[in-house]
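Lab channel / #folding
Pinned by the channel admin:
"Please post every new chain as: sequence first, then the structure tokens as a reply. Keep commentary short and put observations after the output so the thread stays searchable."

First post following the new format, from NK:
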Amino acid sequence: MGTSVKQLQLWTAVAAFMRHVGSVRKNNMTGTKKVIIIEERDFKIQWRALRRIQCYLLVMGTKNDKNHKKEKAQLDQCIKLKKKDISTKHLDINYKRIPPKPNCPKDPMCPCSKFYTNSYYKVGPKSRCVKNLVKKYTCPACKGKKKR
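Reply from TO:
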């Protein structure tokens, strides 16, 4: 079994690129999570402010009575409003762990498979096969796996 030198270089470059993509993906997800945590905190602050504003608007909307007891009661209720009294559960984000890098299935046209060598080297001049063949090659994706 074998493959051409160019194919070997290509598969080595692809394997290196995929390792790089995996590390970049994880770094991007970690950085994005930090930004989202800050935004979540800010949204909760804004939500509590909105609820307080709505409470004060209720004071203005209360019908006037001569003693202003209803307005005073509503205003006291707004002043007593604490952080724990305003629910922000609907704004909570469930941060799952970063999923592991997926294992890609072996491509049947992998350069170290018999299917590839039989298909690729069957057509064309015989000198091409002899000159460009690397014997007993196993690509990085197939190392440690059974050969087909």
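NK: The chain has a mean pLDDT of 75.
TO: also worth noting, Residues 2-104 form one domain.
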